[in-house]
Amino acid sequence: MHKKEQQEIVGYSPDEKDLEILRLLENDAKLSVRDIAAQIHLSSTPTHERIKRLEQSGIIREYVAVLDKKRINKGLTVLCMVALRVHNKIAAGKFIQEVSRLPEVIEFYNISGDFDFMLKIIAADMEGFHDFFVNELSEIEGIGQTKSIFVMNAIKESHQVL
What dihedral angle (degrees, nearest 10) is formed by the CA atoms of 27, 29, 32, 38? Predict the structure, then answer.
């Protein structure tokens, strides 16, 4: 998808049929256009055009496979809060750049409150997290304080917003 294509329909707002498509794709991104069209009571061509418009507008950002972390030896999830020592644009920018390159960090948020950032980190186990924390995260300049919370059990995990 090209930036130019996105810019052409920046103000695009989805209608009810588009929302039906989005709900179906959130539940199963492998559905064919024909299957989606049948479920929303449209023919394939307008359904395909709607999907392309949703992609080009940036409403659909990507299609992904959701993996079972335990089955690929990434069974430990850690929520790590980080407060920076210095609060300015340069320090935050450097921190964001460094953390963004770490594959163990699967979600990364700028938050309010006592901490500046929250990182969702996956590791094989406690030893793997310790190695990551000591050799990667704590080596990033500017960290003032951290607090790690270890997930004992995931009650609900979802990527669906509709």
Answer: 20
pLDDT 10s digits, 6-49: 445 667 899 999 999 999 999 999 999 999 999 999 999 999 99
- 123: β partners: 76
Helix (H, G, I), strand (E, B) or coil at 71: helix
Cβ-Cβ contacts under 8 Å for 146 (sequence gap 6 or more): 80, 81, 82, 83, 137, 138
Which amino acid appears at position 114 of this protein?
D
Rounded Cα distance between 35 and 21, Å, is: 10
Question: Which strands sit side by side in the sheet containing 117-123, from one edge to the other?
Answer: 105-110, 117-123, 76-84, 143-150
Answer yes or no: are the C-beta atoms of 33 and 39 closer than 8 Å.
no
First-to-final CA distance of the chain: 24
What is the distance between the alpha carbons of residues 71 and 45, in angstroms, rounded to a whole number? 39
In this structure, what are the phi and psi dihedrals at residue 114, rounded to the nearest 5 degrees? -70, -20
> Is residue 136 a contact partner of residue 102, using CB atoms and an 8 Å limit?
yes
pTM of the predicted structure, to 2 decimals: 0.85
